[in-house]
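pinned: reference chain
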Amino acid sequence: MCVTVAQVRTGHSPLVTAYLHHIGRRDSDICPHCHSADETVEHLVFQCPANDHARRDTWPGDTFTTDPRRLWSYLERIGAVTRPLTGNERERVNK
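pinned: its C-alpha cells
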C-alpha cells in the first residue's frame, strides 16, 4: 500500500495511463473512464468526472488532505486498487 501511495503522490504510477504512455506501455494517455483528458494523477484524483462521487465521499467538502490512508481509500473506492488480504483472510481463502 505504501509503495502504491508513494507512486501516486509522485506521479510515477502504473495506475494512470499518462505514466504508462510515457514509459511505452500504452498507445494513448487518454483517461479510460471519462475519455476527455489525459489521465494524469492530478486528473485521476482531482478532476475526473467519473470519480466525483468517490472524491466527495473521501474528502467531504473538498477538504483534500495528503493523508495516505485517505488516498488509499479513494483508490479503493474507484476500483484502482484492492486492499491486500490479512493473514486470517488468506487462511479462509486457502481452505
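why pinned: Residues 2-83 form one domain. The mean pLDDT is 89.
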